[in-house]
Design goal:
The structure holds two protein chains of two kinds.
Chain A: E1 30-31, E2 37-41, E3 51-52, E4 59-60, E5 65-68, E6 77-78, E7 83-92, E8 100-108, H1 129-138, H2 151-156, E9 165-170, H3 179-202, E10 206-212, H4 216-229, E11 234-239, H5 248-256, E12 271-275, H6 276-288, E13 294-300, E14 308-313, H7 318-324, E15 332-337, E16 344-345, E17 359-364, H8 382-386, H9 393-401, H10 405-410, H11 421-425, H12 432-487, H13 496-520, H14 528-531
Parallel strand pairs in A: 1-14, 9-10, 9-12, 10-11, 13-17
Antiparallel strand pairs in A: 2-8, 3-5, 4-7, 5-6, 7-8, 13-14, 15-16, 15-17
Chain B: H1 17-39, H2 42-64, H3 69-74, H4 77-88, H5 95-110, H6 123-134, H7 136-139, E1 142-143, H8 155-164, H9 173-176, E2 177-178, H10 181-190, H11 195-198, H12 212-228, H13 235-254, H14 262-266, H15 271-278, H16 289-309, H17 316-333, H18 341-345
Antiparallel strand pairs in B: 1-2
Helix pairs in contact in B: 1-4, 1-12, 2-4, 2-5, 4-5, 4-6, 5-6, 6-17, 12-15, 13-15, 13-16, 16-17
The chains are: A alpha/beta, B mainly alpha.
Chain lengths: 532, 346
Amino acid sequence: MSTVQAPIWEFYGGIHLPDHKAESTRRPIAIAPLPHRLVLPLQQHIGEMAEPVVQVGEQVLKGQIVAEARGRVSAPIHATSSGRVVEIGEHRIPHPSGLDAPCVVIETDGEDRWAELPAPWPDYTAHHPDELIERIHWAGIVGLGGATFPTSAKLATGEAKPIHTLILNGAECEPYISCDDMLMRERADRVIAGMQVLLHILGARECLIGIEDNKPEAIAAMRQALDDAGVSQARVVVVPTKYPSGSEKQLIRLLTGHEVPHGGLPADLGLLCQNVATSAAVANAVLDGQPLISRIVTLTGQGISEPQNVEARIGTLVTKLIAFAGGYTPALHRLIVGGPMMGFTLHNDHVPLTKGCNCLLAASAAESPDPPKPAPCIRCGRCADVCPARLLPQQLYWYAHARDFDKVQDYNLFDCIECGCCSHVCPSHIPLVQYYRFAKTEIWNQERERRKSDLARQRHEARLARLERLERERKERLRKKKEALEKKPKGATDDPKKAAIEAAMKRVAAKKAARQEAADGAGVSANTSSED
Amino acid sequence: MEFRPVTSPYLQADYSVSDDMLQVLLALVPGVVALTWFFGWGTLINISIAVTTALLAEAMAVRLRNRPVLPALFDGSALVTGVLLAIALPPTLPWWLTVLGTLFAIIVAKQLYGGLGYNPFNPAMAGYALLLISFPAEMTRWLLPEMLAEHHLGLYDSLRLLFTGQLPAGLNWDAISSATPLDEMRTRLDMNQMIDEIRQSPLWGDFGGRGWEWVGNWFALGGIYLIWRRVITWHIPVSMLLSLLLIAGLFWLIDPNTHPNPAFHLFSGAAIFGAFFIASDPVTASTTPRGKLIYGALIGVLIFIIRSWGSYPDAVAFAVLLMNMAAPTIDYYTQPKVFGSEEAES
C-alpha cells in the first residue's frame, strides 16, 4: 500500500465549521448496559414498514426476527436481546414530527441468549453474490450514516449497472459526530473485512476510502488495517475538512472528479457508496452470521456530563444512554438527533435508539442558540456561494414563500440535499431549509392528490365508456333483430317455425290424399279417423 | 424530559444584515473624508440631513405598515440609503431638496414596494434621479475643489448657505461654484472644442477634474475593503468599470479629439463610487455569478452611452436604475448549472 496522497477534486460551495469532535473522542467506545426494556420501531429504514411476526407474550431470543421486511426495499427488525414481547403498538420514536409509530416492545430477561443464527461464512468468496445480498437483507442492514436505505437493495442495483469502484464513506463531515471516527480507530479491521465482502459482491476493481483530514488516528488505523489484510485494490484518500464532504455526491466528486449526473445515481458512473459502519455491519452479517442489533452512537455536547461514543442495542431508550454517560448537565438546552447541521430536535427523550441514529447532541444554549427572528432577504447571495448543489437558494426561498411550486421546481428544488449551508450563512437568519422542506412536502402532496384525482377520473371515464359500450351493444342487438324481422317475408324457408308449419301442412295434405285414395278403394277403416 | 422543537441547522454564522450595513458605512468613511477635504462641509451636512430624514421616514412608514419599528431602524438600511444619497448630492444643495430626495427614496422607492429586500430600484438612486430631473440647476452646482478655490466656506458659512441660501458677504456664486468635470467636458464638446483645447483649463488634473479624480480612489479603497470582508463580491464593480474602460477606450482610439480618454471616464463623476456602493447593492442587482458580470458590464456601457450622447452629464443613477429593471430577467437566464447537469449532458 502506498501512502502517496491521491488527487482530490474540490467541490463547489460548502462551509468550514468548528468540528467539536475532540469532546467525544477522548474515551474509547463504551458498551452500554443491557436495558430492561427495548423499544423496536418497525420503521427504522427507508421503504416499506416491517411487519411484526411475533405475538404479545411470546418469548424471543437475541437476533430473532420480530418483524419481517415487506418487499426488497425494506428491512427486518431483530430482537436485540432475549426476553418477552410485552407490547406491540404505538410508541414515541425519534422523528422530527414527534409523533408515535408502531413498535415492538421487549422486556429483557437479562440472559441475552442468542437465537439460532445462520452459519458464519468466513469463506464468503465461495458464495454467490446473490446469496450474500440475501444474507445482508436478512441481517436488516441499512445505511448507518443516517440515510437508512436498505443496504441489500442498494447492492442489488449493481446487477443492472456494473460497479467498478466501491467508495467507503468515512468523511463524517458534520460537527460533533465521531462514531465513524471511533469505529475506524478501534475496529478498522472489521470495516476492511466488510469492504472485502462488498468488493466481492459487486465484482468491483477497487475501493476508495474517503476520510476527512481532521481524523489522523482513523486514517492511520485504516491504512494499517489495509496493510495487515494485504488488500492492494483499496486505498485511503484523505479529503480536506469541509462540510458537506460526507454527502455521497460531494464525496464522489472529491474522490473521482466526477459529478453524479443530474437525476442519476452513482451507479451510472460505475460507483457505489457505503458508510464505514455499514461495511462493518456487513462483515458481522456475512462472516459471523449476526444481524444488526447494535450500533455505535456519539453522545456529546455541553449538555451531557461525559461525552463519549457508546455501542448500544437498537431499541435502548435515549434516557438510559444519557444516564450511562453521566446524565445531563445544567447547560442542556436542546437534544438533537444527528449533527447540528442536518439533525432534528427531539421533543422528548423517551425514544429508542434506532439504526440511523449516529449522534445524540445535548447542546447548550451557547452551542445552539435559539434562532434570531428572521429579517427580510437582502439577496446578498451568500447562500448561492455555499450551496454544494449549485442552486440559487434565495430564488427557491422566494418562490417557496410565494407557494409558486412550478417556479420552485424550475429552480431545481429537488436537487437540494438539505445540508443547511444556506441557512447557516444567511445574514437575515431565514430558516431556508425549512422552506424547502415545506415546498417539497407540498409538491409531494399535490402529486399524490393529482394521482388520486387522475385515478378517480380514469375510473369515471372507464365507467362512462363501459355504459356507452353496453348501450351500443344493446342497440346493436336490437338493430339486428329488427333487420332480421324485416327480412322475414322475403326468404320464407329461412324461418324454421314456418318450415315446420309448412311441413306439418304438407303431411296433413298427404294424409288427406291417402285417405281419399283408401276411401276410393278399400272402404273406410275404423282407426283412420282417430288418427286425424 | 420535554424540549421545544426547532428545525435544523442549529449552527448559525455569527453575522447579520446590520453587520453588513455597518461594514458599508465603515467603507464609505475614506471617500466621505476625501469629499469633505476637497469640497468642504457641505457633504457632511447633507449626510446629517439625509440620515435624520431617512430614519424618521423609515420609522413612520414602517409604523403605518404595522411592522415592528425598531428592527427596521436597527438593520441600518435606511441609514445607508441616506448616506449614499447624500454623498451623491452637491455640497451646496438647499436642505429641503435633500429632505425631498430622501423622503422619495425611503417612502416611495423602498417602503411602498414592501421595505427592505423588496424594492426593485436602488432607493438612493431613485431619490437622486428625482432631484436631478426636477431641479437640474441646483443639482449640478458643485463647488470648486480645495486647490482651486480662493474662498473656502467654513462650517458656519456652509450651514447658512444650505439652510438659508445666503452666501457669505462679498461672495457670489460665480466665485465659488463650478460645474462638475463631466458637465464641463460635455458643454465644451458641444461647443465643438477639441479635447486638447478643453484640457488646458486649470480645472483638469491627471485623469479627470482636479480633486475629483482623487475622491474615486478613496471610494475604491472602501470598496476593496467590502470585497475583502465579503460584504460584496468582485463581479459587479470589476465588470462595470472594465466595460466602461473598454467602451470608452474603443471610442477614444477611434477619435481621441472628441472622446476623452478612458481614465477620464473612470475617475470622473460617480463611476467608482457607483461601482462599489450603488451597482453592487444586492437587493436590486443580479445575484447569479454570470448575471452579476452581465449586469455590471451593461451598467458600464449605459454610463458611457448616457454620458456621451444623453441629456445629463452623469449617468450612474440612470444606468443603475435601468439595469435594476433588467436584473430579474438576467437572473432567470443565468442560473448556474446544478450539480451533475454537465455530466448528465455529456
